[in-house]
Amino acid sequence: EKPLLDVRNLKTYFHTENGVVPSVDGVSFHINKGEVIAIVGESGCGKSVTSYSVMGLVGQPGKIEGGEILFEEKDLTKLSNGQMRTLRGNEISMIFQEPLTSLNPLFTVGFQISEVIMLHEKVSKKIAKQKTVEMINKVGIPNASKIYYSFPHQLSGGMRQRIMIAIALACNPKLLIADEPTTALDVTIQAQILQLMKDLRQELDTSILLITHDLGVVAEMVDRVIVMYAGQVVEEGNVFKLFENPKHPYTKGLMDSTPKIHERKEELYSIKGTVPTPMNMPTGCRFYPRCEFAMEKCKEKAPELLEVKQGYHVRCWLHEEGEVNLDEEFNRKP
Ligand code: SF4
Ligand code: MG
């Protein structure tokens, strides 16, 4: 079966006064029908620009310079703005970090959901209202027929995010893109929202692309993880395998710096240094200046994304001749 979304060698560059910024620099990945994947990385790694590219929302001075974004085998980079708008309202939906800015403060949340339903299903106002109340229920808000008449500012952050999810799912999309959907919420609410998305995904059979800087939130929710660094994919594979044994030193660093829910650490590890800028992009491996495993070769030559086992990819010289366990490698260091 063909993937729902197949991104191939995507290049999205920004043309700034200081030069060209290759925010997304040859990224490939796919999402199967009903699959949930996450793109993880620090801010500036290109994960959001990747999602904006898929949605056709890259604005000036950004531009898709190369590659293909195949959605059900049609190349989205070739569609007009109008065609993309239709696709966004019907087949691809999005939720963002701060729902207050995406909801219209002047209309009730019920009206905003029912508008999408009316547009999408061409049903009467009355039916749309019924369906809206059902939808509000489905996203776990009690008293749905009362909440229908609430304005966004009358609801809590967690409730607003639930409403955004209701709006995003009202058109029954094939793909839901969620860019840091829980970052603005406190930890308990975060967990509830992620659980909700997980439940709805099973019920509605929607594929989900989750964009996050927080490796902690993906563990329970996704099938596959893509880790991005400096505009490139550095590791990609099954979520359990990745958590069990991260293969890229950057992924390991991210993981060591992520607090575990049931574990209290005195001090969390943090990856030294910062994400390189295009003006000081290392010539060899882009992670070289921050890498604790770096070898001579890494400085000179950029590694390719290698398949280290079936369906599992890593961009790192350490695994050139077969996969290496970083923990063992790490302990050998003085
Ligand atoms: Fe570190 Fe070298 Fe691997 Fe880059 S290629 S992540 S510098 S070990
Ligand atoms: Mg972002």
Overview of the structural elements:
One of its GO terms (molecular function) is ATP binding. It is found in: Cell membrane. Belongs to the ABC transporter superfamily. The radius of gyration is 21 Å and the shape is globular. A hairpin with a 2-residue loop joins strand 11 (306-309) and strand 12. The protein has an 8-stranded mixed sheet, sandwiched between helices. Strands 2-1-4-5 form a 4-stranded antiparallel sheet. The model has no long low-confidence stretch (mean pLDDT 90). It has helices at 47-55, 81-90, 99-102, 109-121, 125-138, 144-147, 157-170, 187-204, 215-218, 239-244, 249-256, 296-300, 326-332, and strands at residues 5-16, 19-31, 36-40, 62-71, 74-75, 92-95, 175-179, 207-212, 224-229, 232-238, 306-309, 312-314. The protein has 13 helices and 12 strands. It folds into 2 domains: 5-91 and 173-332, 3-Layer(aba) Sandwich (Rossmann fold); 100-172, no CATH class. Magnesium ion binds at residues 48, 180.
